Please model this.
Amino acid sequence: MIRILIVEDDPNLRKLMSDVLQDERYTAIPARDAQDALDILEDQHIDLMITDIMMPGMDGYTLTEQLRDAGFDFPILMVTAKETIKDKRKGFIVGTDDYMVKPVDEEELALRVKALLRRAKIMSERKITIGQVSLSYDSLTVSRGNERVTLPQKEFMLLYKLLSYPNVIFTRLQLLKEVWGADTESTDHTVSVHIGRLRERFDSWPEFSIDTVRGIGYKAVRNDEG
Model:
């Protein structure tokens, strides 16, 4: 059974989220704060984590960053009262996968958790399918019908990342860090150049597009959904 860690200092909200997840047949594992969560992670397997940002002691940003630095790659959903673009940008930079604003809507929580688990499965299978389009991580190829394109590694990784998280906005800095590495000497202009190349290659493919979010970064739009 899928195990979901809930890091929330408000006992009422923690119980509400636990009940929602248990109704969806997940195993909910509650944690009072970040240190409690770290203790749990020492000896329990977790498939997904939901965390508040503002907590006593270590906040959700620091917890997420520490887990990513330690190699934990499970999906992370931040649930918080902070709803500005600046707050969301910081969350994505430290490694969260999605962001949900309080007050918590029970149906939205269940849908976001399902979407994150679906994306995690994509990463484990190393393949994305969008209508007639297929991306293979192992061969760095993008196929559509009889057409097959082998991309340079960075271009493929950039496209794969964006399409794994449709409609999620990534900053140029975040994409640079994840695709080129934290120690890269490249600038965010490098990301813009590679995005331009991807658009030229796939402009005529109707299954997806890469949109610019002015002043922030980019998002992929999949046209096989809804």
In short: The longest strand covers residues 208-213. The radius of gyration is 18 Å. The chain has a mean pLDDT of 89.
